[in-house]
Amino acid sequence: MQRRAVLLLDDGNVYHGKAIGKIGTAAGEICFNTGMTGYQEIYTDPSYYGQIIVNTTSHIGNYGTYKPEEESENVQIRGVVVKMFSEVASRNLADDSLQNYLEKAGIVGICGVDTRKIVKHIRQKGAMNCIISSDIEDIAEIEAKLKKVPSMEGLELSSEVTCKEPYFLGKEDAAFKVAVLDLGVKKSILTNLAERGCYCKVFPAKTSFEEMNAWNPDGFFISNGPGDPAATDYALETIKEILNQDLPLFGICMGHQLLARAMGIPTFKMHQGHRGLNHPVKNLVSGLSEITSQNHGFCVEREAVEKHEQLELTHINLNDETVEGIKLKNKKAFSVQYHPESSPGPHDSRYLFDNFIEMMKA
Predict the structure, then answer these.
(1) What are phi and psi of 325, to 5 degrees?
(2) Catalytic pick from 70, 253, 256, 296?
(3) For the whole model, what pTM was predicted?
(4) What are the C-alpha distances in Å from 322 to residues 142, 312, 337?
(5) CATH for 158-361, among 3.40.50.720, 3.40.50.880, 3.40.50.300, 3.40.50.150?
(6) Common-topology check for domains 4-146 and 158-361
(7) Annotated catalytic residue, options 274, 279, 315, 339
(8) Active-site residue 237, yes or no?
(9) Annotation-wise, does 245 bind a ligand?
(10) What is the pLDDT of residues 236-253, one digit of tens each?
(11) Where are the domains of the chain?
């Protein structure tokens, strides 16, 4: 008989279901992802570090796991909430079941709950902390543990997921050298750069501009990552130095937020964030729309961008008109809030990597 589990939200709502993954207790900020596929890519994305994911797709685990589809070396989420969970993998490529995968990674989960109801609640009430437990039955004890969990607002997490030492990816004789500031970079981002003729040197999050520039790169990439951009100010001086030297710079997600902050633009915590593979964005430069992959709970203040003399608003979200892209008018620098590598898809936005290549050519 499958063990029981409980999900408790910060506002007191309780959901009862069955245990999946490791038997234990896990807490973090609850958020939902609207992607129909790609649960393994979601769970291994460092931008999700410290969060509990609700998958809106009803069936999770049916195609198992496959090592090449990981976005980092570790599962980054704290816990997972799903409706229907399959312990059987029905894909020839699968090298493990999702149940074994989560157990090995020490991830606590719950299934058999009404995920539609939970998502509707989060949409109305906003982001909040939660706790999943399959080894504690006393709700009061679980609640006491939940009260000790810090808010995501104000948390600096990039230093928790960044590489410890610099490393290389791509061909050494490639046409371009790209210095990557690793705030929680995804493997598929580096792959997209390497496929376009870039030799990447990936640096830990707190690396100075001087150390990165000593490698003599053709361009700088500021990666995605978890936590509050306002608490990641150690990267601002690095970005400001890149801008002062007018060197090519491309930022994604956290990198986008930090580029904005380096230009004096505030960021704020969103009501529930954008997470999924189906978010519509309009490119204000081309007039075209893109279906994008997103994962962020913080955002750049639009009014401040529009008033800034040196910034151009290049992309907006068509659901809520928030900032999705900016570029500097007088520098070789641009950024987007979403994830153009879009693993596992869609691939509408990969032209942005080509734009970065063209910028390095100039």
Answers:
(1) -165, 145
(2) 253
(3) 0.95
(4) 36, 14, 10
(5) 3.40.50.880
(6) no
(7) 339
(8) no
(9) no
(10) 999 999 999 999 999 999
(11) 4-146, 158-361
Out of 41, 71, 290, 341, pick the active-site residue.
341
50 a known binding residue? no
Q: Which amino acid is at 304?
A: A
Bin 260: left if φ > 0, else alpha if -120 < ψ < 50, else beta. alpha
Which two structure tokens, joined as six digits, stand for 224?
């995605």
Among the four given CATH numbers 2.60.120.560, 3.50.30.20, 2.60.40.1180, 3.60.110.10, the one describing domain 4-146 = 3.50.30.20
> How far apart (Å, rounded) are the C-alpha atoms in residues 181 and 239?
10
Question: Using CB atoms within 10 A of its CB, is residue 3 exposed (0-12), middle (13-18) or buried (19+)?
Answer: exposed
The verdict on whether residue 47 carries a ligand-binding annotation is: yes
What integer pLDDT is reported at residue 342 of this predicted model? 82
Residue 254 is labelled as binding a ligand: yes
Cα(118)–Cα(120) distance, integer angstroms = 6
Q: What single-letter amino acid sits at 6?
A: V
pLDDT of residue 1: 61
- Do the beta carbons of residue 81 and residue 115 sit within 8 Å? yes
298 labeled part of a ligand binding site = yes
Query: Token pair of 230, please?
Result: 């306002």
For residue 51, say whether it is annotated as part of any ligand binding site: no
The answer to whether 271 is a known catalytic residue is no
Token pair recorded at residue 335: 């950024």
Phi and psi torsions of 170, nearest 5°: 105, -175
pLDDT digits (tens, 9 = 90+) for 72-131: 999 999 999 999 999 999 899 999 999 999 999 999 999 999 999 999 999 999 999 999
DSSP character string of 138-207: -HHHHHHHHTTSPPSTT-B-HHHHS-SS-EEES-TT-SEEEEEE-SS--HHHHHHHHHTTEEEEEE-TT-
Q: Is 339 a catalytic residue?
A: yes
Consult the annotation and say whether 257 binds a ligand: yes
